TrEMBL record:
The record marks 78 as: Lowers pKa of active site Tyr. The keyword Ribosomal protein does not apply. It comes from Agromyces mediolanus. It comes from the Bacteria. This is Oxidoreductase. One of its GO terms (molecular function) is oxidoreductase activity, acting on the CH-OH group of donors, NAD or NADP as acceptor. Substrate binds at residue 111. Residues 26-259 form the NADP-dependent oxidoreductase domain.
């Protein structure tokens, strides 16, 4: 068992979330249980999946088989955009829990707002109900701009505790992170390495050489120092361990300024207002 362990960050509802987790987007079902167990063995306690990823059953199996107490593990899933709406979201949650084979999960998110269908507030009301009934510990959103979150708060009086968005050195989302922080919302980064494309940047190579680390570790450490929750994906046990090994060094002001200079606004996914 690795000595590495991500720190726990407080959520506004009193729960805690491991700052660095294992992301399961585009992890094939046939690999998901094996890689999730490898992550848990390496010291991860946070697994991030979604109905759309089509590997909830395998993640649930890994959680059930893991040689650690269930209460140590933090599982996130998400309602897919086709199921936005109050009744649809409740049914989607039931279906997800049937696949997981677990009594409950720690965090449930609206995956995309999909403004064109205008059903994300209804989904949010369903998430509030699921939380109030004790079926999920915490509730949040993914891919929400500030104005989407504003509407949730205005119409329900309830703010999400997490906003999971695309975030990496090309797209640091400073304004959204500031908005989230002002409203007690933790920002969580998906595509934290820009799907690996940012790692070829010579600026990162130079910082990596300076610290005796890999470019991926430099970017993940940057996320940690920003205060983000971050969920890198990896497909080998070696990379899984490497991604967690970012708590034994720190970037200095010069490093952070250099990484800040990489901002271009480029997305690897779509804009949440575009649906």
């Amino acid at each position: 068992m690795s000595a590495h362990r991500a720190p726990l960050l407080p959520l506004a509802d009193g729960a805690e979330i491991p700052q660095l987790g294992f992301g399961l987007y585009k992890v094939p079902a046939e690999d998901a249980a094996r890689l999730a167990l490898a992550a848990i063995d390496a010291g991860y306690r946070h697994l991030d999946t979604a109905a759309f990823y089509a590997n909830e059953a395998e993640v649930g199996r890994a959680v059930r088989e893991a040689p650690v107490p269930r209460e140590e593990l933090f599982v996130t899933s998400k309602v897919w955009k086709d199921d936005n709406g109050y009744d649809e979201t409740l049914r989607a949650f039931d279906a997800s829990m049937g696949r997981f084979g677990l009594e409950g999960i720690e965090l449930y998110l609206i995956h995309w707002p999909v403004p064109s269908t205008d059903r994300y507030v209804d989904s949010w009301r369903a998430l509030v109900r699921l939380r109030d009934e004790g079926r999920v510990r915490s509730i949040g959103v993914a891919n929400f701009h500030a104005h989407h979150v504003e509407r949730l708060i205005a119409e329900t009086g309830e703010a999400p505790v997490v906003n999971q968005v695309e975030l990496h050195p090309w797209l640091p989302q400073a304004e959204l992170r500031a908005y989230d922080a002002a409203h007690g919302i933790l920002t969580e980064a998906w595509s934290p390495l820009a799907r690996g494309r940012v790692l070829d940047d010579p600026v990162l190579a130079g910082i990596a050489a300076k610290h005796g680390r890999t470019p991926a570790q430099i970017v993940l450490r940057w996320h940690v120092q920003l205060g983000n929750v971050v969920i890198p994906k990896a497909s080998s046990p070696e990379r899984i361990r490497e991604n967690l090994d970012v708590f034994g060094f720190a970037l200095d002001g010069e490093d952070l300024a250099a990484i800040g200079g990489l901002e271009s606004g480029e997305r690897t996914g779509r804009d949440p207002d575009g649906d």
